[in-house]
Structure formats: structure tokens, C-alpha cells
Amino acid sequence: MVNAVLMFPGQGAQKVGMGKDLAAEFPAARETFEAIDDALGFSLSRLMWEGPADELTLTHNAQPAILAHSSAVHAVVGSVLASLAGAGHSLGEYSAYVAAGSLSPRDGATLVRRRGELMLEAGKVRVGTMAAVLGLATDTVEGACEGATTTDAWAVPANLNTPDQTVISGDPEAVSRAGEVCKAAGARRVQPLNVSGAFHSPLMAPARDGLAAELESVELRDPGFPVVANATAEPVRNGATAKRLLVEQLVSPVRWVGCMEQAAAIGGDGVTFVELGPGKVLAGLLKRIVEGASVVSLGTAADVNAFLETHA
Questions:
Q1: % residues pLDDT > 70 (the chain)
Q2: Which tens digits make up the pLDDT trace of 86-110?
Q3: Which of 223, 248, 251, 294 could cross-link to 100 by cystine, CB 3.0-4.6 Å?
């Protein structure tokens, strides 16, 4: 068994073909995809494997697709993991609760499908944008956002990804002002993001009631291991707290630096961070947060086979 902290990627990690090799090789992965297809009432797996890419990228498709991929990987490797803690980046927090046994893959996919729809709708009610600020300390970015915010336009830190990588979110004019201040303060780059709304900002408030109602409609059991919440960077050990913080997550920053520091403290010496799902973004971020962390990314059948050969 591998003493592990589990990490689950968020939106943006999707790509056409994701998970197809897993389904072909591992019955547990194939059964996970089939269960999610059945729950959603359409073949999400076909969209994942065949595209088109622009449809897969739509928020309400990308979110369940990434959760399905992460859940399929966990279905295959979970038996060799002694999971001490888990965390997911935004959408990935739901994947963490699936892995922790709080939600079934079916319920998790249904929830995030609805979450994506609500976020898309909120983005139409009040058009927003996001931008990644690279090479600048978080507190400097926070100050730029405060200075750029007015009574009519918000700019807020949305994703605190590493000590020198922060994504800002809000009204386009305020985000633009904050970005210019960040450039003047020495940011290496300010990169606009192609998103359908100002995620993790006050502009997502119209989605809160709908998500709260959706969460109340499902049973969210106490997790089998602590899940570190994006909104607080604190471990969650019961379902009621999880529901409350998943709603707050919509309008709160993803405190990823704090999440990884907290997870490392729970895991202790000798723990392995395991990224489950598409891509290796979280592994890259971790190396800039927790010095010397041991990390492995499991997204493809080849990744999984190599891991199982070593640890099964």
C-alpha cells in the first residue's frame, strides 16, 4: 500500500481522447464511464473519446468529463492507496469526494454537470473574465485587485496556485486594470484566459442557490479521509460541512497553496502525492509549493500500469 495524498485536476485539463485507453484496458474504468453515461442520459464517454473539442470544452461537459476520468483512474488504483488526505482544484474537489466515498461517481457527475450549467448561466447574467498573473507574489496581486475594484466592477484573486502564480477574476474592465498594475509591478506575464465566466468571484453569486439545492438533493456521506476544502484550506471530515463549503467555493478563491501545505502536514513524512485524472498540472504546481514532495501523475493506461507494476 502507498501512503498517499490524492490530487484531482480541475477544468482546463480536458482533451479529446481522455480516458479511452483506460476503458479499453481496465474493466473498473469502463464500468465507471458506463455508470456516468447512464446517470447523465447521454454518452459523455463518446464525447470524451471522439469530441468535437469545442463541445467537450463547454463548462457543463468538461466538468463531468474530468470527474469521470479521475474517478475511473481511482477505480483502478484505489485498492493500492492508503489515502491519508485528498484535495481537488475547483471542480476537482468533487472528484476528491467521490474518491473519499462521499459521493458515487454517478451522483458526482450529475452534480458537476448541473454546477457547470449554473456557472455558464451566471456568466451570461453578468459577463466576466479571468487572467493568470505569472511571476508576481500573491499579496501584490491582491493589492492590485483591491485597487482596481470599484462599486460597479470587481477584480479578485480567484486561484492561488503557487506563491508566484495567481489567477484573477471579475468584470472585464476591472480585471484589465488589475492586470496593468501587475505588469507595472513586475509580473512576468498576464495571460487572459478563455473562460465563460468570472469563476470563483462574486459574479458567480447567481449560481449559489441552484447549487445549494442540487447538493441538498443528494446524500453526501462523511468522507473516508479528510478532503481539504478550496474555500478554507482546512480539512473537511463530515458531509454537512462539505456541502456548505462546496457552495461557498463558487464565489471564493481556490486556496491551492494552502490546500497543498495542509495536505502535506496531514500526510507527513514519506507520503506520496498522487494526481488522478488528465494532465500533470497539479504535479507541477506542487513542486513549487512543497519542497521535495514525492509526486506521481496517473492519467493514462501506461501511467496506471507502471504504477501498479511497482505497487500492486
A1: 100
A2: 999 999 999 999 999 999 999 999 9
A3: 223
Q: Say if CB 95 and CB 48 are below 8 A apart.
A: no
Catalytic residue among 45, 83, 90, 102: 90
Domain ranges of the chain: 2-123+203-311, 128-196
Please confirm, yes or no, whether 200 is among the known catalytic residues: yes
Kindly state the helix (H) or strand (E) to which residue 94 belongs, with its residue range.
Answer: helix 92-99
Residue found under cell 480541475: 10
DSSP annotation of 206 reads G
Annotation says 90 is catalytic: yes
Q: How far apart are CA 33 and CA 131, in angstroms?
A: 33
Sort strands 2-8 and 81-88 into parallel, antiparallel or unpaired.
parallel
Nearest alpha carbon to residue 199 among 302, 115, 79, 106: 115
- pLDDT (0 to 100) of residue 32: 98
Spot the catalytic one: 71, 200, 201, 297. 200
Q: What is the CATH number of domain 2-123+203-311?
A: 3.40.366.10
Q: Cell 471522439 sits at which residue?
A: 50
Strands, DSSP E only, in the chain?
2-8, 81-88, 129-134, 155-162, 165-170, 189-193, 227-228, 235-236, 272-276, 294-298
Please give the model's pTM, rounded to 2 decimal places.
Answer: 0.97
